[in-house]
Amino acid sequence: MMRTVDSPIRVMLADDQRLVRAGFRSILDGEDDISVVAEAGDGAEAVHMAAATRPDVVLMDIRMPVLDGLEATRRIVANKALSDVKVVILTTFDLDDYVYTALKAGASGFLVKDTDPVELIHGVRVTARGDALLAPSVTRRLIAEFAMRIKLPPPSKDLKSLTEREREVMALVAAGMSNDEIATRLVVSPATAKTHVSRVLTKLGARDRAQLVVLAYESGMVRPGWLG
């Protein structure tokens, strides 16, 4: 279900703790442009409910019974009928091996569970509009931390298909920049920056910007601290 500009952001909560779900629901349902449409208490239920309700954003706990959040994320992302569904991982820790793996599997970002309500609301909105929740420095640190542990593969043939400008744009995405920030950096219009990002996503077959970040680090295109 493609969300229209005027319709509220439809959110699904997946967490085995009812109190956590209740707290998140209370915060999100208090916003005029956000509506919690489903809840799940384990990973298997999350996969089923995502298919049944097709929310815009799933807030997914990483550790749940029956099926963990990582496998649930993988299954949701693999379902072509759910291509518009964005998954944001919820975790107790800001540096967690599972979080990096989830991002690589197709999650659009992550939030720590004790995040401020304002940041939670912002995170849902950012993810819903397709920008991926990668701006916080802690997220870039996490990706860089685990990408450093991976033996770099030979340059991908897909990466070779990128133009010089597209490679530059991908590197800026990997630095956590929004389309507006990329436009300012390259002295182009935001629309042009968005077009470049879209072309890179298409050429690399990436689900969203989060996967571009992972690919950029794993390929060695950028390294931690590249933009200071």
TrEMBL record:
Gene3D superfamilies per UniProt: 3.40.50.2300
A Pfam family per the record: Response_reg
Span of domain HTH luxR-type: 155-220
GO biological process: phosphorelay signal transduction system; regulation of DNA-templated transcription
Keywords, ordered alphabetically: DNA-binding, Phosphoprotein, Transcription, Transcription regulation
Domain Response regulatory residue range list: 10-128
Alphabetical list of SUPFAM superfamilies matching this protein: C-terminal effector domain of the bipartite response regulators (SSF46894), CheY-like (SSF52172)
Protein name: LuxR family two component transcriptional regulator
